[in-house]
Amino acid sequence: MQLTYTQTKELISTLKDEYCIDDYKEVIENIISLDDDFYSPCDNYRFINSDNIDDIMQDELASDEYILGCFNADFLSYIIDIDCDIIEAIQKAEAFEAIGKLIIRLDKIKELQQEYVSLDGYGNHFAHYDGYENEIHVLNEIYYVFKVN
Q: What pLDDT, on the 0 to 100 scale, is given for residue 7?
């Protein structure tokens, strides 16, 4: 992928003005090389290509059974079709990982992730700093931008 001078200038302006990113060279190199998921460590931003964001989020959710078990009991009840009272009892016993294992065993990660995004967007998961999700458009590609620190 090759950015024109005008596209590069516009991207640099966006990164500096909207995201206060000073080390924009690294970000542009990652976008040009079609990286799907990368950080700008100096500026604490994470960039994720929109084509891969759902798979990345599903992988991250599946890797943390404890977090899976911490979702709202009503939400989990809807996803795994188990009575909410049972989920609440398991959570009160602090067996969050057991719920997470059940979600994985029932192959409900994709469904959970899609419902989570439809309700809260991507920001709550990826933007640890402020919960916001932003988008930038570069050569017909969309990257989500998240502040992580």
A: 66
Residue stretches of the chain with pLDDT short of 70: 1-9, 12, 15-20, 22-43, 139
The predicted pLDDT at position 94 comes to 97
User: CA of 115: how far to CAs of 76, 128, 135, in Å?
Assistant: 10, 20, 20
